[in-house]
Specification:
This protein is of the alpha/beta class and 223 residues long. The protein has one domain (12-222): Ribonuclease H-like superfamily/Ribonuclease H (Nucleotidyltransferase, domain 5, 2-Layer Sandwich). The chain contains 8 helices and 5 strands; from the N terminus they run H-E-E-E-H-H-E-H-E-H-H-H-H. Helix 5 (152-161) runs parallel beside helix 7 (191-209). Residues 38-211 form the Exonuclease domain. One of its GO terms (biological process) is DNA replication proofreading. Pfam families: RNase_T.
Length: 223
């Protein structure tokens, strides 16, 4: 499934240099063949699920190209946030005074944009992660992400439809899909760990959909 995010018209010169570089990366068209496309599979760990009140604590990402994870091409940042929710520590394990380097929200966003450029983004329940990043961008007066986005939870449903093993109203969690595909869950609920697990899910889903259905970017978008 592809999400087409609303894009406001704006004067590029009004924004910082790193945003201008990010926007300029879209002048290069994406390859038509999916095997040549740089997919960035990413995940966010947050203080909670409220788009207005909660904040991003970490972002993890890894690149998939030609149905292969490029392990060395990875991304991970931790953000220094004033807002903190002790109740979510049991999920992501990030404590408030963790002893590792943290970036400001603006610095983390800058690095993330420089990493993703015009790649196709992939996430599980992508709407949440994309909207959290967009909310962070808006706090700094920046527009929304411009990238095309794929959601592995939606793509997984497509594989189930083809075998009639589908409850159309069911929301499949990453845990359920990982279990179905026998994927190791050792690093579950860290941003980088979830991004890696999602990348494996993405590759397995693409394989199950069949090469004909995903041979071109246009076909994958339609699908």
């Amino acid at each position: 499934m592809i999400f087409n995010w609303f894009k406001k018209k704006h004067n590029l010169e009004d924004f910082p240099g790193f945003w201008q570089e990010y926007e300029n990366s879209f002048e290069e068209k994406l390859p038509e063949d999916t095997g040549d496309i740089r997919f960035v599979v990413f995940d966010t760990e947050t203080t909670g699920f409220d788009f207005e009140k909660d904040r991003i604590l970490s972002i993890g990402a890894v690149v998939v190209r030609n149905k292969s994870i490029e392990v060395k091409d990875n991304f991970e940042v931790y953000l220094d946030q004033e807002k903190f929710n002790p109740e979510t520590v049991k999920i992501h394990g990030i404590i408030q005074n963790e002893k590792f380097d943290k970036l400001s929200e603006m610095e983390a966003l800058q690095k993330f944009l420089q990493y993703i450029e015009n790649s196709v983004l992939v996430a599980h329940h992508a709407r949440f992660d994309v909207k959290m990043v967009n909310k962070a961008l808006s706090r700094h007066g920046l527009p929304k992400l411009k990238n095309k986005v794929l959601d592995t939870s939606v793509l997984y449903k497509k594989t189930r439809i083809s075998t009639n093993l589908i409850d159309r109203d069911r929301v499949y969690s990453l845990d359920e899909i990982a279990e179905a595909y026998n994927i190791d869950m050792t690093d579950r609920h860290t941003a980088s760990g979830d991004a890696y697990i999602t990348a494996i899910v993405f590759i397995k889903v693409l394989s199950r959909l069949g090469s004909e259905k995903i041979s071109s970017l246009r076909k994958l978008y339609r699908f």
